[in-house]
Amino acid sequence: MIPKEILKKIRRIQIVTNRMVSDVFAGEYHSVFKGRGMEFDEVREYQPGDEERDIDWNVTARMGRPFVKKFVEERELTVMLLVDASASSRFGTRGCFKSELSAEVCAVLAFSAIRNKDRVGLVVFSDRIEKFVPPGKGSRHVLRVIREILYHRPRGKGTDIALALDFLNRVTRRRSVSFLVSDFQSSGYEQALRIAARRHDLIALAVGDPRESELEPVGLVSLRDAETGEEALVDTSSEPVRRRYADEAGNRRQARIRLFRESGVDCVELSTGEPYELTLLKFFRRREKRARH
């Protein structure tokens, strides 16, 4: 039995994201993520202005007058959502946990996909593969995906991004549009990222929280790593301590950005407490502009 608070969250996400998809994101999604090419649709009579190379000579010979082949975009895509459910995802200081922000963003992407008749699949991972939902279509399927992201109780605490990417390559033979949603508190996934980026259109959604990059000066604070359980007593009133904390966070971020760029992976940075709509919209438009050029 799913708790009432989870059902309320699912309903709220459905209402909010459906409205955004209807107003903005479905069209932007369609223009950015193209199908696999053009497929044959039908044969029709030649009209002035048609390309001679499109003439179907077999039908033309049988009918005694020119006919041309008509093609349409092969639109259907498979969209895979790889969602980090490690212990660090259940952290947030700005109105929601990172896991809740991830669920809402995934809902926008999933509803945009089914609005364009694409298929959506889900991989929930921690330091193991927690849940796999094969790609499917329709609103009920998307609601199941959202429910799994919000309600799944992970067995693992750590983060193994390489494992998730290897699993993606095993279960998705054809090229997909894959969103890797994580706070990327992991290491050793560089090779797996490069391989997955060659096989799929891989986009990283880096979900964070302001307290992960800077400390407020509130005196002695006990910090605990949610994934390893390690604890440390930190004097946040010390400016050198706060500066070192911020520098280390900044260095990790720059290394991650450099890895994504070298691997050909687009990255979208999201943070709890900040509206994600404009960030996603900028990403879609940046991708569309790049595709045109």
Any overview of this molecule?
With 293 residues, the chain is an alpha/beta fold. The protein has eight helices and ten strands. Strands 5-4-3-6-7-10 form a six-stranded mixed sheet, sandwiched between helices. The protein has a two-stranded antiparallel sheet with strand order 1-2. Strands 8-9 form a two-stranded antiparallel ribbon. Helix 3 links the parallel strand 3 and strand 4. The chain starts with a helix and ends with a helix.
Rounded to an integer in angstroms, the radius of gyration calculated over CA atoms is 23 Å
CATH class of the largest domain: Alpha Beta
Uncertain ranges: none
Quick one: overall form? elongated
Distance between the termini: 51 Å
SSE arrangement:
Layout: H1 4-32, E1 37-45, H2 57-63, E2 67-74, E3 78-84, H3 98-115, E4 119-125, E5 129-136, H4 139-151, H5 161-171, E6 177-182, H6 190-199, E7 201-208, E8 220-224, E9 231-235, H7 239-263, E10 266-271, H8 277-292
Parallel strand pairs: 3-4, 3-6, 6-7, 7-10
Antiparallel strand pairs: 1-2, 4-5, 8-9
Helix pairs in contact: 1-3, 1-4, 1-8, 3-4, 5-6
Structure at a glance:
The chain is 44% helix and 24% strand.
Task: Identify the notable features of this structure and list them briefly.
6-stranded mixed beta sheet; 293 residues; 2 domains; alpha/beta; Rossmann fold
